Amino acid sequence: MPRSSIRRLTAAVVTALAVVAVVIAAVVLTLVDDASAGAGSVVPANAQLHQQQKPVYAALGSSFAAGPGEGDPVPGRCGQTSDNYPRRVAAELGMRLIDASCSGATAEDILRPSVKHPERGAQLAKVPADASLVTITVGGNDVGYISRTVTSACSNLAAGLYLPPAPAEQFCKAITVPSQFPDPGRFAQVQQTLVDVVHAVRARAPQARVVLVQYPPVVSVNEAPCAALPLEPWQVVSTAAVGEELRAATLRAGQAAGAQVVGFDQAAAHTVCSAQPWIRGFGKKTPYHPNKQGKSEMAAELVSALR
Prior knowledge:
Strands 2-1-3-4-5 form a five-stranded parallel β-sheet, with helices on both faces. Helices cover about 45% and strands about 10% of the residues. The chain has helices spanning about 5-55, 65, 85-95, 110, 145-160, 185-205, 235-255, 290-305, and strands at about 55-60, 95-100, 130-135, 210-215, 260.
């Protein structure tokens, strides 16, 4: 074969091999890209599937469940915070949480849309049929448990009976006369509404374990006065009595409806004026609500009771 022909043949072979190499490289890159894309899409899908496969926990109630005052606020969620007891319980038990709790909610707001905020809808509507656990902490707003305490403190500060531990105007938007001790009928109404709530939850989620979570005590008649609680002695007694009546109504509701009731016996030693309070006092954001430690203790007690 002439030398010129050999050179042409060699050049053609080299060119062909180069084209093949480019094609192979393109195929390899495509496969790598596809694999990377597949890995990126599979991980979130698996995580989402894992989350969906977790047992469902629905939390209902007022601010003592929502947890305002400390912790990172959950945007647009009724004063809920990232460290409230429902979120702690869900994390500890490995459950998927649906938190419908809302600061200011009454017992009726669980069954029907709030009169003040109808756009929020009824909390009950957020309970899915496959819920495994439903907790309910509500009733305090029905009997003015915390509002009476705050109003009494503000009235006392306005009258100069106590020196405020912080600028009173930050926490006392308006000075009003504290409401009277709740009529016994109001506690009876809370009890009946809680019974209705338990039955309604079971109708929506027949397999759910329904737990009524009591309000921990805020004050104690056995503790010395402190700046965080600018109340007269008789007002401390009144506030403590409201809390006791509310817990008793919750217990009776649980017994009548056959629901588990979880209380916080140790919390009696950790009220506002104790050495280690689980409740924030006046001068703190959202006073007379569980602080960070209080929310942690509520979650721990609930987890212990559930296990």
